[in-house]
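[stage:ingest] chain + small molecule (iron/sulfur cluster)
[stage:ingest] validated
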Amino acid sequence: MRTSFTPTQLTDPHLAEAEKNLRACVHCGICTATCPTYVLLGDERDGPRGRIVLMQNMLEKGGSPDPETVLHVDRCLSCLACKTACPSSVNYARLVDEARTHIQVHYRRPLGDKLYRWLLATVMPRPALTRVGLLFARLIAPFAFLLPGRLRGMAAMGAKLRLSGPAAPVRAILPNPRRIALMPGCVQKAVAPDIDAAVARVLERQGIELVPLEGAGCCGSLTHHLGRSEDAKNWARRAVEAFERGEYEGVLITATGCSAHMKDLTHLFLDDPLWLPRAAALAAATRDFLDLAEPGTAKEPRSLRVAWHAACSLQNGLKITGKAEKLLESAGFDVVAIPEGHLCCGSAGTYSLLQPDIAGALRERKLENIAAVEPDIVATSNFPCLNHLQSDDTPPFVHLAELLDWADGGPVPVALAERAG
Ligand code: SF4
Ligand code: SF4
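[stage:predict] done
[stage:export] tokens:
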């Protein structure tokens, strides 16, 4: 596709990267059918091809974007199903990232929307604030119906989350020759510390010692997807400095959305020659749980049907397919595939809080597809999907590591223990 950026515009490496991808798009529309928002809304502007046109116009023109462009970019889940489907190797992530940053800098959102986004970007990356927020959500739950739309949804989601105390430090039982640093993460750390504990036990059995990455915090993915690239860079710099203070074989973060972001950190610093190589070193050292987990000795069948929910970040970001199913089978579970597994469940970081109607419709569709295969358990490796999908009337949702740990003699996963009463 032809573009008309000025030479001055193209001195910005982020814009130059976006332009390269705009030129690669031939507008064939092959990606359209894979896009969850297009499938749901049937509007070309809510599909990748239409969004690419809107984003090109916005970026070429510069300055304040029109509300129509913002609406359709905001509705994008960043699930990257379109990137996986594209035969011309268009990296849609580079386009939508640039568009979100441009919107954040140049668009004047209504005050309520602006404050809501600020609240998400401020509270969610910080486990201590998240715990306070959850406590508050519990207190106001009986009056949540009085709140305006998205705040009502946020309060309801907060009230259903388990409130955990600070996570017990992950410590090795035996000294192991391989040391991997564990990124603390954010919301998962506040509400589901059992996941990291299960990951530590699974890796321990493989001879990997997990040690906390002291000084690091959130990976920055959450703020990045809100278009707050300076915030995302600050979180990344903090992680880089923490990583440089120790000697580790790698750095692990146990939600695939976060590991996909960290493995792609380099592009955040394209315009920063000092931080670029340091971020590249952390990106190269980043591991997902599925990079490290290996099948143990094969277990007896358990007669438990496990539906595997592959997060978009796993299949389209990390491009790891098939391994989780093999691990679960080796652990004795009967693994079943979920129909329409390529369609996002609507979680997508803060998306379910920002676009509750679309996220709710995608959730319902995912749950119908899950119900069709009648599983006893649904497994995933991305806590945000688990949290978005689970409720009292769904099958229990469990992190992959908790199931593998249980199969090897670890504790019963919390979600299963709670159902058992
Ligand atoms: S992004 Fe790829 S698949 Fe989609 S319209 Fe462009 S070239 Fe075609
Ligand atoms: S990232 Fe997902 S929601 Fe956004 S355009 Fe691509 S397929 Fe559609």
